[in-house]
From TrEMBL:
<keyword id="KW-0460">Magnesium</keyword>
<dbReference type="InterPro" id="IPR002698">
    <property type="entry name" value="FTHF_cligase"/>
</dbReference>
<dbReference type="InterPro" id="IPR024185">
    <property type="entry name" value="FTHF_cligase-like_sf"/>
</dbReference>
<keyword id="KW-0175">Coiled coil</keyword>
<protein>
    <recommendedName>
        <fullName>5-formyltetrahydrofolate cyclo-ligase</fullName>
        <ecNumber>6.3.3.2</ecNumber>
    </recommendedName>
</protein>
<dbReference type="InterPro" id="IPR037171">
    <property type="entry name" value="NagB/RpiA_transferase-like"/>
</dbReference>
<keyword id="KW-0479">Metal-binding</keyword>
<comment type="similarity">
    <text>Belongs to the 5-formyltetrahydrofolate cyclo-ligase family.</text>
</comment>
<feature type="coiled-coil region">
    <location>
        <begin position="24"/>
        <end position="51"/>
    </location>
</feature>
<keyword id="KW-0067">ATP-binding</keyword>
<keyword id="KW-0547">Nucleotide-binding</keyword>
<dbReference type="Pfam" id="PF01812">
    <property type="entry name" value="5-FTHF_cyc-lig"/>
</dbReference>
């Protein structure tokens, strides 16, 4: 596991004093290095390990009451050796649950839209080469209306910190629902391979906390 001893000190300095730009830079460099190391780890998984992990993910989720009781669920289509949700999506659709996928906002930088998906949804590739539903106003759902948002991630720790691909998409898109007291907030669940666990991740003020992390071998409730 990767260690970050001075993480909290650096994070506190970065948030409290706008003049400490070199510490902010250090934090950005740390995040970048961690991203590279953790992405390398998941890219080394064999095809067999990926298949097996995806099946175990569904088994883990089937044990969770909050998953079985959910109706409107956002997931993702795997990219860059992420743990695949394909079995989970298929099972949800078979059980007549509503599935949503993230779509890059056509205008607002860093913003995600959540669009309803099923087997017949017309798809396109976004600028990262990830398949996403074609935008249709009638199939959009405000994130506050979702029961669960399953998030892809590059790294996680058992405190519920998440390191993503570095675009700030999920942090930006969920800021309003997480921080607004009168909006219902969906459960935020990270999905990851076991090898994506770090001992302590550096945090920045905008980082959205996870409520749980599911891996093929465990469910970590925060
Ligand atoms: N499967 C999946 N879907 C997702 C995300 C994700 O992390 N995984 N996202 C989570 O936010 C959003 C897309 N964000 C992404 C951000 C960067 C890269 C990426 O591959 N970056 C390349 C550089 C690509 C470029 O600049 O052209 C890289 O870092 O190597 C991919 C997705 C929405 N959909
Ligand atoms: N709520 C926010 N408001 C404004 N800018 C933000 C917000 N969240 C993140 N950002 C910007 O996005 C950049 C990337 O953030 P971060 O490194 O936390 O991304 P990430 O969580 O790894 O990415 P992703 O969520 O796309 O997987 C930050 O440098 C920051 O400038």
């Amino acid at each position: 596991m990767l260690n970050f001893q001075s993480q909290s000190k650096i994070a506190a300095m970065a948030t409290s004093t706008p003049t400490l730009r070199s510490d902010q830079k250090k934090l950005i460099t740390q995040k970048k290095q961690l991203r590279t190391q953790l992405r390398n780890k998941r890219q080394q998984l064999t095809r067999f390990e990926q298949h097996s992990a995806a099946k175990k993910l569904l088994i883990q989720l089937n044990h969770q009451t909050w998953f079985n009781n959910s109706q409107k669920v956002a997931l993702y289509l795997a990219n860059d050796s992420e743990l695949s949700c394909a079995h989970v999506i298929r099972t949800l659709l078979q059980n007549n649950k509503q599935v949503f996928l993230p779509v890059l906002h056509p205008i607002n930088h860093r913003q995600l839209l959540f669009v309803r998906y099923d087997q017949h949804t017309p798809m396109r590739f976004n600028r990262f080469g990830i398949k996403e539903p074609r935008l249709a106003r009638s199939r959009l759902l405000d994130p506050s209306q979702l029961d669960i948002i399953f998030m892809p991630l590059v790294g996680f720790d058992k405190q519920g910190h998440r390191l993503g691909m570095g675009g700030g998409f999920y942090d930006t898109s969920l800021e309003r629902v997480v921080n607004c007291r009168w909006l219902k907030s969906p459960k935020r669940i990270g999905i990851a391979h076991d090898c994506q666990q770090a001992s302590e991740l550096p945090q920045e003020p905008w980082d959205i906390q996870l409520n749980a992390i599911i891996t093929p071998s465990q469910c970590i409730l925060i």
